[in-house]
Amino acid sequence: MLKFFTRIRILLWVAALIGVGCLVGFQVIAKLNQAEANLRSLEQEQITVYPVETQVLTTADWDTWRSYYGQAKSAHTQNITTYEREIVKTVHVDIGSSVKAGQTLITLQVADRGVRGQAAQTAYEDAKANYNRLRQLNAKGGISKSEVDTAYTAMKNAEAQMKSTQTTLQRTTLKASINGIVSARNVEPGEIAEAGVPLLSIVDPKTMEAELMVSKKDISRINKNTPVEIYVDGVKSKGTVKRISPEAQSGSGLYPVVVGLEDNSGILPGTYVEGRFMVNSLRNVVIIPSNVVIYRGNTQSVYIASGNKAKLVQITTGEGQNGQVVVTSGLKLGDELITSGNRVLYDGARINRNIEMAGDLNSVTVKDDNEG
């Protein structure tokens, strides 16, 4: 009986110890779970979420315009000169005068020329009368045929001299051969006009053109079908490529390109103009801001949004101007480009973004100024 009660006490103690062990185990497990939960919460608090702005990519047309400079001039001009050294009698126009083709501009002295003209006329009439007289004598057998031929030759020489003198006399009246405006006057009445020296200059303002000096890198891209815009003081007019020089000017290394201007452009001769040539045109390309591109060694990368994380993508770029660049590989239509906040990101970083649509871009015009 004593042994029975002893066993019962032992079993009770064992049960009590097991109960206490279980209670302690449950408390330890609960504390471990709480510690694990606290650790997870702390880790969540330590994960940084970066605010960014993104842009959904579309495609657009990319037109590159290059600016060059030159001076306007008239395509049709006339310099009034005299054939012989002579005294100027009258100048009928002044600078700015409008003139018509055939209008008299300058009259030269005719005194000496008039005397010479009269003398030539008389000599011709005498030679003609002598020829007729000898021809009649030859018909009657009074003189030989050779004498008549000699008289005929003399008459023709006198006639040629008379016509030459008359032509010279006519040249004392200098006339316009084109419609236009007098742009220069270099002589006054009483002064001596030297042969071949311009006395007046006439320009036709309705046929204006400009010679623009183009660099080597663009001359091969320009032809007679290249679109051209002309700017003077911010006012735009249309131009057309007329002539392209195949040879660069010595010294500057620039190539002259002559551009015709619109009749209603209002540009006057001598005006300095800016000409913009469309030197390249791309269709349906991806265009991004150049400041989002990250350069690391020889690679170019950008961040795009992939779910709630940033993804680093390598790209290849093409032409770039005025804060924009063409992407030739690495991005596609519909990608969500991170445009703001990208400088602190890393691949896989958590992001919180505002999405901005790129808009309905149909074309992008790029202007690049080049000193001509």
SSE blueprint and pairings:
Layout: H1 2-46, E1 49-56, E2 59-74, E3 77-80, E4 86-91, E5 98-99, E6 104-108, H2 111-139, H3 145-170, E7 173-175, E8 180-185, E9 192-193, E10 200-203, E11 208-214, H4 216-219, E12 228-232, E13 235-244, E14 255-261, E15 272-289, E16 294-296, E17 299-306, E18 309-321, E19 324-329, E20 336-340, E21 350-357, E22 363-369
Parallel strand pairs: 1-21, 2-22
Antiparallel strand pairs: 1-20, 2-11, 2-15, 3-10, 4-6, 4-9, 5-8, 6-7, 8-10, 11-14, 12-13, 12-15, 13-14, 15-19, 16-17, 17-18, 18-19
Helix pairs in contact: 2-3
Write up what this structure looks like:
It is built from four helices and 22 strands. The protein has helices at residues 2-46, 111-139, 145-170, 216-219, and strands at 49-56, 59-74, 77-80, 86-91, 98-99, 104-108, 173-175, 180-185, 192-193, 200-203, 208-214, 228-232, 235-244, 255-261, 272-289, 294-296, 299-306, 309-321, 324-329, 336-340, 350-357, 363-369. The chain has a six-stranded antiparallel barrel with strand order 2-11-14-13-12-15. The chain has a four-stranded antiparallel β-sheet with strand order 3-10-8-5, with no helix packed on it.
Beta-strand fraction estimate: 35-45%
Query: What is the mean pLDDT?
Result: 82
Spatial gap, N to C terminus: 124 Å
Unreliable stretches (pLDDT < 50, length at least 5) are 358-362
Q: Tally the helices: what do you get?
A: 4
Q: How would you spell out the order of helices and strands? A: HEEEEEEHHEEEEEHEEEEEEEEEEE
SS-based structural class? Answer: alpha+beta
Number of strands: 22
General shape: rod-shaped
Rg over CA atoms: 48 Å
Amount of helix: 25-40%
Sheet with most strands:
6 strands, antiparallel, barrel
Strand order of the largest sheet: 2-11-14-13-12-15
